[in-house]
Design a protein that fits this description.
about 170 residues, disordered N terminus, Cytochrome Bc1 Complex, Chain D, domain 2, mainly alpha
Length: about 170
């Protein structure tokens, strides 16, 4: 019986370490909120989010924010998306759209992402979310991808609304 319990603990450890930056040897616990996080004004209302969604370019303006939020659950174990949020195993995604890949200050990226040479936009994020390792071999991201195109549209729309994206006038 003891061997079965030890095996279960080992499997759980391996599963959790797959999401860590350094193979699971970190002793750091992610902070729930950084000390220097900006004090924000009132959170956006559902009406604000609906207006932001409507302002997005097609097909993202038809995204289902609720489904996008649900799909973000796959990302949440490694990423935050709030302004001033902490980096976890992956970088905080606030402000990702329009940012050069591998350039978020304070986060250590794989060589592949540092050398990617593109700026994050919906097209690149869609390819990334489909198959991160296929799109950018050498990335340390272990996520298998989201294969349903509608789920990716919804997730990208959700991220645009939640991460401070401002469409060009």
């Amino acid at each position: 019986m003891r061997i079965v319990k030890l095996a279960a603990v080992g499997v759980a450890f391996i599963a959790l370490s797959a999401c860590s930056k350094d193979g699971g040897s970190s002793n750091e616990a992610p902070a729930s909120a950084p000390a220097d996080a900006p004090a924000s004004a009132a959170a956006p209302t559902d009406a604000d989010k609906a207006a932001a969604l409507a302002a997005l370019p097609a097909p993202y303006n038809t995204g289902d924010l609720s489904n996008g939020q649900s799909k973000f659950a796959f990302c949440r174990s490694c990423h935050t998306a709030t302004e001033g949020g902490p980096d976890l195993t992956g970088p905080n995604l606030y402000g990702v759209f329009g940012r050069k890949a591998g350039s978020k200050p304070g986060y250590t990226y794989s060589q592949a992402v540092q050398a990617a040479g593109f700026t994050w936009d919906a097209e690149h994020l869609d390819k990334w979310l489909t198959d991160p390792r296929g799109f950018l071999p050498g990335t340390k991201m272990t996520f298998a991808g989201i294969h349903d195109p509608k789920d990716r549209i919804d997730l990208i729309a959700y991220l645009k609304v939640e991460t401070g994206y401002k469409p060009a006038p």
